[in-house]
């Protein structure tokens, strides 16, 4: 068999059977469905782990993975895709601001779950939007931001970003919600403490049977994570999340995630933004 140039120049031996095992493990642990086109991507992400552990090839790494629970977390962290940005898909933040303004007279605090928060840009964008909508740094708002990846959660809770990450934000937002680093922190910006206080970070694997949080939520952001899951997993998660929404709550999906077929659960009310289908509100508020 002719091996491709990429395969023959690889630093570590990486066979199809290794890739198949990796696919099965990440599917089982995180629900992430890896297509065959991801073989090289997986190699480059895990090769870093082999180097760090001084292991000779993927077969040895996979045996090590089976025996070392701590490595399992590193494995998942290495294989998640964490692409995000402040105010990514900005239309959702306009919708959130309108929703918050319409509900300002409510007795309860607005509760938002950001279910795949990556390095924090998304929950802090939610916090900025709500601070602006309520016109105060301490709006009556609680945001839970969760992710499966412990590295991104640690980064998110630090709330420190290189200046290029916030470059596209209006000057006023940069001034109001970030502190510019000096000395050894030059070139960085830190989210102000008032904003950080609005966000609680939690490690949550959406695949777990029990989520350590309690509904009801007014808004659930679950953007650009469902795409990694197969359809049955997506539907099961959507069903669980809608049970956590208030009857007039919002479910916000990513740009390539469509649930228009799930008419028994949700109804489209804006760009990848959903309300509960009229019968789906029973059980909101129950811990699951
Ligand atoms: C592409 S990022 C999306 C970030 C953000 N929601 C956005 O739209 O900008 C996908 C995130 O989903 C997380 N993720 C993947 N599988 C997960 C799972 N089973 N449970 C929770 N989070 C998961 C990844 O760690 C990653 O941070």
Q: Could you walk me through the main structural features you see in this protein, from its secondary elements to its overall organization?
A:
Its EC number is 2.1.1.80. Keywords: Methyltransferase, S-adenosyl-L-methionine, Transferase. Methylation of the membrane-bound methyl-accepting chemotaxis proteins (MCP) to form gamma-glutamyl methyl ester residues in MCP. This protein has about 290 residues and is an alpha/beta fold. It folds into two domains: about 5-80, Chemotaxis receptor methyltransferase CheR, N-terminal domain (Chemotaxis Receptor Methyltransferase Cher, domain 1), CATH 1.10.155; about 90-160 and about 195-275, Rossmann fold. About 40% of the residues lie in helices and about 20% in strands. The chain has a seven-stranded mixed β-sheet. The chain has a three-stranded antiparallel β-sheet with strand order 3-5-4. A hairpin with a 2-residue loop joins strand 9 (about 265-270) and strand 10. The model is unreliable at about 280-288 (pLDDT under 50). S-adenosylmethionine binds near residues 31, 148 and 205.
């Amino acid at each position: 068999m002719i091996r491709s140039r990429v395969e023959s120049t690889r630093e570590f031996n990486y066979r199809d059977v290794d890739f198949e095992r990796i696919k099965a493990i990440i599917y089982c642990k995180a629900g992430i469905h890896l297509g065959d086109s991801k073989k090289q991507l997986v190699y480059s992400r895990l090769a870093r782990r082999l180097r760090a552990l001084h292991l000779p090839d993927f077969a040895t790494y996979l045996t090590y993975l089976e025996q070392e629970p701590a490595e399992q977390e590193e494995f998942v962290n290495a294989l998640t895709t964490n692409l995000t940005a402040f105010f990514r898909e900005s239309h959702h933040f306009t919708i959130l601001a309108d929703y918050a303004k319409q509900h300002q007279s409510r007795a309860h605090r607005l509760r938002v779950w950001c279910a795949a928060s990556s390095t924090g840009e998304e929950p802090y964008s939610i916090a900025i939007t709500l601070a602006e909508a309520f016109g105060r740094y301490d709006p009556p708002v609680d945001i839970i931001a969760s992710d499966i990846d412990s590295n991104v959660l640690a980064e998110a809770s630090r709330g420190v970003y290189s200046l290029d990450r916030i470059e596209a934000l209006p000057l006023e937002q940069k001034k109001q919600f970030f502190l510019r680093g000096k000395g050894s922190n030059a070139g960085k910006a830190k989210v102000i403490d008032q904003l950080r206080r609005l966000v609680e970070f939690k490690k949550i694997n959406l695949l777990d049977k029990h989520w350590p949080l309690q509904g009801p939520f007014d808004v659930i952001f679950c953007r650009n994570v469902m795409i990694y899951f197969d359809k049955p997993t997506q539907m099961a998660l959507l069903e669980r999340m809608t049970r956590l929404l208030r009857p007039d709550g919002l479910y916000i999906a990513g740009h390539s995630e469509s649930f228009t077929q799930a008419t028994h659960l949700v109804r489209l009310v804006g760009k990848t933004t959903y309300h509960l289908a009229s019968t789906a509100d029973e059980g909101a508020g129950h811990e699951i």
